[in-house]
């Protein structure tokens, strides 16, 4: 089966606030055989199923985000540079949408060797996060890097010259209920995250009515 | 860095020559201005621009009783800190990374800034005061390296 990647769907159509948010997921052409004929269809990539372990020690799969919109990010607890900023900003998002059953936050550690379940639990506690609306997940390193790079389109790689040994992007990724990426934001700045919160509200509005 | 230090020496020299204000006051203002910038780029991501810290993750500097241990603070700015500490009755236990790239002058400027802003000081912590303190804790850090981050 031939899967051809088309251009990344980064065409910014329009950004008026009453417009729908664009879908930023890559498009892929899928060729299927229907009634003996081969048919090529173009579909948006979706975030694939996953299985990680949360700060509470239980397995988190795509079931946890079913029928929710969520913000994903990649960090590690001992990161000295941008992660503290990202976590302070994501905490604002958490406080703003606390208790909203349609919104979740999913933070993936990119340093699973150090960030065990216990370490993530302590980090979340210290940040003042409880409950299951904001999950901090760990898992197999390759799997996390793979989903980060290939599905959420963020970069993360080991680099012993960088502080903390890993370079990674400070992006927050907004994902809709169909598991399409609808926005990518600079998680290290107030402005980037103000825009994210605005877009979360716009996306929530799309599901109303 | 050497160029920058040289520049400071020249600048300080000029300022001394041209001074009508007290030399000490000019130097203090220069330290504080530099200190603010250094604080923003090296410390504020954890301790926040307003010095209030982040929940139980990063302790506050604003109103911190820990600032009473000034020698310790000077050391931890450069050499980091490991193991549990208590700030204003609250326990923190998360490693603060060392920043070995900071020069003695930069440590003095940061110290001056945080003590003027949050330590109720109005004076200057000069580089000549900071250098021997950093020397002492450098030897200390080599003799008993800080423990790896506590579980």
From TrEMBL, chain A:
Disulfide cross-links: 79-83
Boundaries of every Thioredoxin domain copy: 41-205
Alphabetized UniProt keyword annotations: Copper, Disulfide bond, Metal-binding
InterPro entries noted in UniProt: SCO1/SenC, Thioredoxin-like_sf, Thioredoxin_domain
Top-level taxon: Bacteria
Example GO molecular function: metal ion binding
Binding site for Cu cation: 79, 83, 168
UniProt-listed Pfam families: SCO1-SenC (PF02630)
Family: Belongs to the SCO1/2 family.
Protein name in UniProt: SCO family protein
Annotated source species: Spirosoma sordidisoli
UniProtKB/TrEMBL annotation, chain B:
Cytochrome c domain ranges (all copies): 30-118
Protein's name according to its UniProt entry: Cytochrome c
Matches recorded under InterPro entries: Cyt_c-like_dom (IPR009056), Cyt_c-like_dom_sf (IPR036909), Cytochrome_c-type_DH (IPR051459)
Keyword presence, Iron: yes
Any GO MF annotation of the entry: metal ion binding
PROSITE patterns on file: CYTC (PS51007), PROKAR_LIPOPROTEIN (PS51257)
Signal sequence bounds: none
SUPFAM superfamilies listed in its UniProt record: Cytochrome c (SSF46626)
Keywords for the protein's UniProt record, in alphabetical order: Heme, Iron, Metal-binding
